[in-house]
Amino acid sequence: MAVKRKISVRKILQVFLTVVVSTGCIIAIVSASKIEDHKMLAGVAVHIKNDKKYHFIEEKEIMDLAINNRSIDVMNTPVANLDIRSMEQVITADPWVANAQVFIDNDHILHMYVTQRVPVVRIFGQDSRSYYMDATLSLMPLSENYVYYTAVVTNVPELKDDSTGWALRRQIFKLVSTIQADTFWSAQISQLIVDTAGTFELVPVLGDQRILFGDTSGMNDKFSNLFVFYKNVLNRIGWDKYETLDLRFRGQVVASPAIPYTGPVDKAVSAMNWINSIVETEAKNDAKDSTRTADAKTTHVPVVKAAPQQTGKVVPKTKPQPKPAAKAAPKKVVKPQANKPHPAPKAKSTDNKSNKDKNKKQASPKYVYPEKSN
After folding, report:
1. Contacts of 135 (CB under 8 A, 6+ apart)
2. How many domains are contained in the chain?
3. Among 189, 222, 257, where does a domain finish?
């Protein structure tokens, strides 16, 4: 025979009380939520992370995105009619917003917490467009409110949403992050250039060298080799001796000279060369002097002195007579006088000697004029 089980009244009462209490709680919660849903907002609060340091997006822009542009009267709209989820989506769609959270607290205040993006590099494209990129490899346009100074990369091709575009974004971020993490390289490297092959060229602050970096493979070794080259080579021979530094080869730096460079020479040899140059210069000068002397001897240039003018003399307009011999006796000049006989010649005196000396020095031709008949 089967044994009949006794029904416990106590258990039945426990189950009944549990159901009643649970139902009451559910009804109370539902009624409370309905009451809250019909209440109005007490205010709106916007919180932007890093708003003191960066100003890419302002509080007014968040209000316009979530409320004003959607024509929502939040102060006169019941809480139940506010679409919190859509507000978050609209705010997050802004390129300068990294994350957004919207909720209503117990005091009926609408809170909007926004995290703005922080760029790590400014990109100048081949199409003359300029924009920013952050650590998540997201692209942001230039802000009208704020200009942020960061690393610069130029000649960048269009960064599409394909494998090539994302690979180039990762290389740019990796190289820029490494440079900014080091105090020396962040101060020395002012610009990055992307060439046609998709590799990088560094533009230094100190020096005019073109630094061909290549891709980001072995990046730390390339920077170490370049630092050693700066320390052991450029610091000794000068920063203007090379125009190109190639880091693309493993474990070495290939430098192309900018100007002709002569290494150290033997002092004794250089001294002998200096003496020989002086001897050769003196020999050339002596040869020139001897040539000039020979030319002066072969070429005779007569020097003619003009005769002094005297009153009562007539200077002929004929060609000059040849120079008389030095020993020839000078002829006496007789001046004509009107209606008077020509005076007789006087005896020799000391004046004749002086006249002879003058005639010898001047050596000019003399002319005798005939006497006039009475």
Report:
1. 118, 120, 173
2. 2
3. 257
